[in-house]
């Protein structure tokens, strides 16, 4: 957990469940397992473990330190799909960035793609065929592909921020 290798930490908990027969050792590790589940965005499992943690440690429902346990996982963050964002930017440049919540980047992506296409059309119209083809359409291809990848990256970045904020509140 401390090295931020949460998949490996979860694997260690599975091994503990299988190999260690002492229930006290398992109960002592519940809190850490809850933190690992939170970091892996497995919030339903974390909530179930937290309920077990409360029962095992005999925490009364009226304890002021643990009030609001039932609502701790009631408002999960709404995460976006990176593949969907990439696909949206494939059809309309900038739409994936808009889906991810980055209006400025969406506007810039759409503008760069439109400007590249306009430059290519203008150069071809002025009979600079090679320059229009290589310069304008070459730039358009780069901006188009880069915008699609950037939309996916922005979506992942947004999801990490939301999940990180959600998990930080749960740690407290």
> What is the terminal separation in angstroms?
17 Å
Please count the helical segments: 8
N to C succession of SSEs: HHHHHHHH
Identify low-pLDDT runs: none
Q: Output the structural class.
A: mainly alpha
Number of beta strands: 0
Q: How much is the radius of gyration in Å?
A: 25 Å
Helix content: over 70%
Largest sheet: none
Rounded mean pLDDT is 86
Principal-axes shape call: elongated
Strand proportion, as a percent range, falls in: under 5%
Give an account of the 3D structure:
With 172 residues, this protein is mostly helical. It contains eight helices and no strands. The protein has helices spanning 6-19, 23-28, 30-39, 43-56, 82-91, 95-100, 103-125, 129-171. Helix 1 (6-19) packs antiparallel against helix 3 (30-39) and helix 5 runs antiparallel to helix 8. It is elongated, with a radius of gyration of 25 Å. The two termini are 17 Å apart. 21% of the residues are buried. The model has no long low-confidence stretch (mean pLDDT 86).
């Amino acid at each position: 957990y401390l090295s931020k290798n949460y998949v490996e930490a979860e694997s260690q908990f599975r091994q503990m469940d299988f190999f260690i027969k002492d229930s006290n050792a398992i109960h002592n590790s519940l809190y850490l397992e809850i933190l690992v589940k939170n970091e892996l965005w497995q919030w339903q499992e974390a909530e179930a473990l937290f309920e077990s943690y409360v029962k095992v440690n005999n925490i009364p429902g009226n304890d002021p330190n643990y009030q609001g346990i039932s609502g701790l996982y009631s408002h999960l963050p709404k995460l976006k799909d990176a593949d969907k964002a990439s696909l949206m930017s494939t059809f309309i440049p900038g739409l994936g960035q808009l889906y991810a919540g980055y209006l400025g980047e969406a506007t810039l992506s759409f503008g760069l793609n439109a400007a590249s296409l306009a430059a290519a059309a203008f150069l071809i119209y002025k009979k600079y065929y090679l320059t229009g083809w290589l310069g304008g359409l070459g730039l358009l291809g780069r901006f188009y592909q880069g915008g699609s990848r950037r939309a996916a990256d922005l979506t992942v970045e947004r999801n990490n921020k939301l999940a990180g904020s959600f998990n930080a509140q749960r740690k407290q």
